[in-house]
Design goal:
Largest sheet: 6 strands, mixed
Shape: elongated
Oligomer: single chain
Order of helices and strands: HHHHHHHHHHHEHEHEEEHHEEHEHEEEHH
Distance between the termini: 73 Å
Structural class: alpha/beta
């Protein structure tokens, strides 16, 4: 209430009358939601973080000013959430943020149109539907890979909230974003009512309270009735994180370090060993010596290795980032080439126009090549007499050994069931874990385990590693499939089918090989079945609003109906 009293005071209006102060306020208001994301991780703040931005746009004197408030707020949001890109992109981050910020121009105009003054119950109800829909279309547009991809979607700030993850299982991260924006709009309706005892303000506040209640009821209904996959077994997965390794021979030193860490897994009987992104710096067909070392390592540990090759291919032109499965006999032939590349980090969009970015930042000197299709791999059978027995298919209720820090099992504790041969695994590479549609496609194609191989060493001391690791919880919840996020330098983490954390994460200060007993699940979530129905629903809401406004515009243009002739006047005579 103190905020609203200040907002209505003459001092606030005088301050915001200055275009420079108002612009600065819009940038700051747009940046506030970044505090809900890792590393601050103030998830609860997301439900009020948009209120200052909405109040600013609501009070804009003109639609043009509201559009500018939306643009500047969007620019502030992108800068705050992606500020850790500054060492790589340098000054180029500013025009990029301004470009993406323009996607919030319509949202600012909608906020003024629906919230200005003291909106009646009808306009207030429309605001609770339209403003979340407008926000979703902004997020959907910037989720195009050419514009940077869906990093920093508002719903992703709720990764650690079980109820929000359950919403994601129904409508993906989009439904979570919509609920968060709707709650913020409801607070504005509660706070921004004009003072006084009039019934209009009370009805508007009632709509705001109803909006908060509706969001709570929706979340409760989803929690109670949404179908969820059932845990059906365990698979034992080992992660190898070698830590920061720099220098001219970094690729060879890293490979040797990963070998040493992997040999520590002998006797732990994993079903799969996962190395991080760019863990192998040469094509295995061109370097048979590396392929033989990996094959021997697989035989010693008793499990296939999923490595990531970042190198020029020997069988085709160009550099690829590829997930490659290696067994005791060498590469199995199962390979996935990364499809969605990081703008500027792995390719420069419109290089003929923007190639100068390589001279001011860490943009890619040569564009990497894209894969053509997603792949579901199947774990190979172990050779006869090979040490170790896998854990896939083991009863989820079977007792587990006491876990040591960072692991889900104790070395030397062998599972008591058949190997995991044939287990379908869906690989993703780094940035691709931000795309909900990619993990959904893998789940639809039969993947029982999702694995993302990543490397954020360029941004080691920033918010980036924690932000990236948090995405595993959402992708697991959306698909109902466990998600393994394996990195070179942290943060590495394993998430169960509902997005819950399995074991301890490996932070950016760790060099370790850790083993996790990961629960598998069968069944599908509503999001896997229905896909992106929430953004499509948002589009229909906006179309309905446009139709409503068109009808209101057309009605006054209709010619008035002709007046009926007046009856003749009769004069009474006495």
């Amino acid at each position: 209430m103190g905020l609203m009293r200040w907002w209505r005071s003459g001092r606030a209006r005088a301050l915001l009358a200055s275009p420079w102060w108002r612009g600065a306020a819009a940038l700051l208001a747009g940046a506030l939601p970044a505090l809900a994301f890792p590393a601050p991780g103030l998830w609860w703040f997301a439900y009020v973080a948009l209120v200052p931005w909405l109040l600013l746009a609501r009070g804009a004197p003109t639609a043009r000013r509201a559009a500018l408030d939306g643009w500047l707020g969007g620019t502030g949001f992108v800068l705050a959430v992606h500020h850790w890109l500054l060492p790589s992109l340098h000054v180029f981050l500013l025009p990029l943020a301004a470009l993406l910020g323009a996607l919030w121009i319509p949202w600012g105009m909608l906020a003024r149109h629906l919230l200005a003054g003291s909106p009646g119950p009808g306009r207030a109800a429309w605001a609770l539907l339209v403003l979340p829909s407008g926000w979703l279309l902004s997020e959907l547009a910037r989720s195009w890979q050419g514009l940077g991809g869906p990093w920093g979607l508002l719903g992703a700030s709720q990764w650690q909230v079980p109820a929000a993850r359950r919403l994601a299982s129904v409508g993906g991260v989009w439904l979570v974003s919509a609920v968060v924006v709707a709650v913020n709009c409801a607070w504005v309706l509660l706070l921004a009512r004009e003072p006084g005892p009039g019934p209009r303000g009370r009805r508007t506040a009632t709509v705001g309270l109803g909006g908060v209640t509706a969001c709570a009821v929706l979340t409760g209904a989803v929690w109670a009735w949404a179908p969820r996959p059932e845990v059906s077994g365990l698979v034992r997965v080992a992660l190898v994180q070698p830590g920061m390794i720099d220098g001219p021979d970094a690729a060879d030193v890293r490979f040797a370090a990963q070998e040493r860490l992997t040999r520590q897994l002998v006797g732990t009987h994993p079903d799969l060993v996962v190395w991080g992104e760019s863990s192998v710096g040469a094509d295995l067909a061109a370097r048979p010596d590396l392929a033989r070392r990996l094959a021997r390592l697989s035989a010693e540990v008793g499990a296939p290795l999923l490595v990531n090759v970042d190198a020029r291919r020997s069988d085709r032109p160009g550099i690829f980032k590829s997930s490659v499965l290696v067994g005791p006999s060498g590469p199995t032939g199962q390979r996935y080439d990364k499809m969605r590349l990081v703008p500027f980090g792995e390719y420069v969009p419109a290089r003929s126009l923007l190639g100068w970015a390589t001279s001011v930042g860490r943009a890619a000197d040569e564009d990497r090549r894209r894969g053509s299709a997603q792949v579901v791999m199947r774990l190979p059978a172990r050779a006869a007499g090979q040490d170790g027995a896998g854990g896939a298919g083991r009863s989820a209720g079977a007792p587990r050994a006491d876990a040591r820090p960072g692991t889900g099992t104790t070395p030397g504790t062998a599972p008591d069931t058949a190997p995991a041969a044939g287990l379908p695994v869906g690989p993703l590479v780094c940035f691709e874990s931000a795309f909900p549609d990619m993990s959904r496609r893998l789940a639809r194609d039969g993947a029982a385990l999702l694995v993302a191989q990543s490397a954020t060493s360029t941004f080691q001391d920033s918010w980036a590693p924690a932000q990236h690791a948090s995405l595993a919880a959402l992708r697991a919840a959306e698909t109902g499939r466990p998600f393994v996020h394996a990195t070179l330098t942290g943060v590495s983490v394993v998430r169960g089918p509902g997005g819950e954390q399995i074991g301890a994460r490996l932070g950016t200060d760790r060099r370790a090989a850790a083993v996790y007993d990961v629960p598998l699940a069968h069944g599908t979530t509503l999001y896997v079945r229905l896909g992106d129905w929430v953004p499509y629903g948002a589009l229909l809401v906006l179309v309905a609003l446009c139709g409503r406004e068109a009808l209101r515009t057309v009605r006054p243009l209709r010619p008035p109906a002709p007046a009926l002739p007046a009856p003749p006047v009769r004069t009474a005579r006495g």
